[in-house]
């Protein structure tokens, strides 16, 4: 028993030595979004550059502001894959260009990972109206839901009437089980 214990201890120690000597090979970072470098957006000049200049230098924006089409947003990030974990954001950059109504660049902001504001879920519950119904609503809830075709087979959207035997009320519709429904 002691010899077997020493054998396993030696195997584990040897495995740990082999693993400690290995260098971790990390995969290359994964780029996401518009990869905009400082050299690119430094070509834009406040109060002079236009939307066409931005399009030719940077390409199409990732998105526009929700309520202002003159605010262009370029979003990029680089993620590193970490074994046995979620990808980690290595680099994140958001370039915000504000144009006036004539299409001239008036303001430019560059935001990075450290400018991000963490957002958490709200602790309360949002009330949803209409989830509690009264007795009257329960009684009158089915008024108007009568479907005269419900007694027909499933071809007409009925219940199917399974278990009533063959024929059009057996859930096969009026097509006689597919016989005679083909085009000439």
Description:
- It is extended and about 70 Å long.
- It has helices spanning 2-21, 38-41, 51-58, 135-140, 168-172; strands spanning 30-33, 63-65, 68-80, 88-99, 105-112.
- The protein has 184 residues and is of the alpha+beta class.
- Strand 2 and strand 3 (68-80) form a beta hairpin.
- The protein starts with a helix and ends in a 12-residue tail after the last helix.
- It has a domain at 27-115.
- Strands 1, 2, 3, 4 and 5 form a 5-stranded antiparallel beta sheet that branches.
- Residues 33-107 form the Outer membrane protein assembly factor BamE domain.
- Residues 164-184 are annotated as: Disordered.
Q: What gross morphology would you assign?
A: extended
End-to-end Cα distance, whole Å, is 84 Å
Helix-residue proportion: 10-25%
Mean pLDDT: 73
Spans with pLDDT under 50 lasting ≥5 residues?
Answer: 160-173
Can you give keywords for this protein?
184 residues; alpha+beta; 5-stranded antiparallel β-sheet; 22% strand; BamE-like; Outer membrane protein assembly factor BamE domain-containing protein; BamE_dom; membrane
